């Protein structure tokens, strides 16, 4: 009996050692500057990350450049279709910016394309633009408290050509069009909902040009779940002018709502996504996990995972949400202001922040 137990223990230990010997990420390499990483080629990225923080992200903020850099990861990567072409996350939006920034869906993206191009030139950045865009996005989002630490894989080749037009979803697209486009690029409805959670750290400049910097939720500096709550609150007003393409009414002054975000959780239009959307309303950890997994896929569209090197350990570890944050209704609103959309589970019961109704400040 005892001998069998010992034998089992020895075999189990041997199995653990064999498993441990395989994955690359267990390797430890000391860079000349003292950083520890899984692969020597990642060493060059640590100083670049520091420069990104100081010179692009205003010293490590979850501000406009971080938000725009996250949006850019998507607009570069989604330029891929098995039938229509495009190289995915290849940096084509930077290299062929004259062509791609002119696409209608890329409205407002020229600012961050120019800023990243300028940064690459002035900092002698020698990594390829496809890598640079995904690195900047992962570093930028790490500045947002509550964000997951994203994976960063390194080694994308330079882009071969510009992406074709009409591959990037528009806020006035129907939900069917949006889900079909994502499906063509390899994403199911659950993954789309997780990716749209990025609008938790986001604002719009071009939807209503009279109110640039109008956020999609009341906490655009936090990677929290408020976007899932606030997009599901009854819309009562337009924060600026009405009648803009791709915009529907929002629940509070100073906040803007995309038609596409609202359709994703509107039951009669789409039962496929409403329950996923609702499930994140009070599930920060679930949102982090799903977002990280979906971004992991999005960041390497057009590439073979095995051709890239895992340099995730260059990405800063994000701060958790502050203790004062947490899922809530907006001040002076009630549970009944939530428009139930999921047919199979009730929206979680949340308390409103204390105080009178307030408007949301621009970013
Ligand atoms: C159906 C899909 C999507 C549509 C229709 C959509 C649409 C938009 C629109 C219209 C804006 C405002 C742009 C402006 O006027 O300045 C925006 C902003 C943004 N989007 Fe999306 N988006 C989608 C998916 C995504 C995904 C998958 C991500 C990232 C993973 C993303 C990240 C962002 C971010 C971070 C911003 C804020 C940029 C800033 O604050 O400057 N979006 N999106
Ligand atoms: C730019 O970087 C490359 C490779 O890191 C280096 O060989 C070159 O000397 C640098 N050029 C300047 C102007 O710093
Ligand atoms: C969507 O894809 C993810 C990742 O492959 C998977 O875990 C999930 O179950 C899928 N969801 C649906 C609804 O098919």
Automatic annotation (TrEMBL):
Signal peptide range in chain numbering: 1-21
Annotated residues for binding of heme b: 199
Keyword terms: Calcium, Disulfide bond, Glycoprotein, Heme, Hydrogen peroxide, Iron, Metal-binding, Oxidoreductase, Peroxidase, Secreted, Signal
Enzyme class: oxidoreductase
Organism: Lentinula guzmanii
Alphabetized Pfam families for the sequence: peroxidase, Peroxidase_ext
Cellular component GO terms, alphabetical: extracellular region
Family that this chain belongs to: Belongs to the peroxidase family. Ligninase subfamily.
Keyword Iron in annotation: yes
Site description Transition state stabilizer, residues in chain: 71
Disulfide bond keyword on record: yes
PROSITE patterns assigned: PEROXIDASE_1, PEROXIDASE_2, PEROXIDASE_4
Binding-site list for Ca(2+) 2: 200, 217, 219, 224
InterPro entries reported for this sequence: Ccp1-like, Haem_peroxidase, Haem_peroxidase_sf, Ligninase, Ligninase_C, Peroxidases_AS, Peroxidases_heam-ligand_BS
UniProt: Ca(2+) 1 binding residues: 76, 88, 90, 92
The EC number(s) this enzyme carries: 1.11.1.-
All copies of domain Plant heme peroxidase family profile, residue ranges: 108-346
Binding note for cofactor: Binds 2 calcium ions per subunit.
Cofactors: Ca(2+); heme b
Any one GO molecular function term: peroxidase activity
Active site, renumbered: 75
GO-annotated biological processes: cellular response to oxidative stress; hydrogen peroxide catabolic process; response to reactive oxygen species
Name of the protein in question: Peroxidase
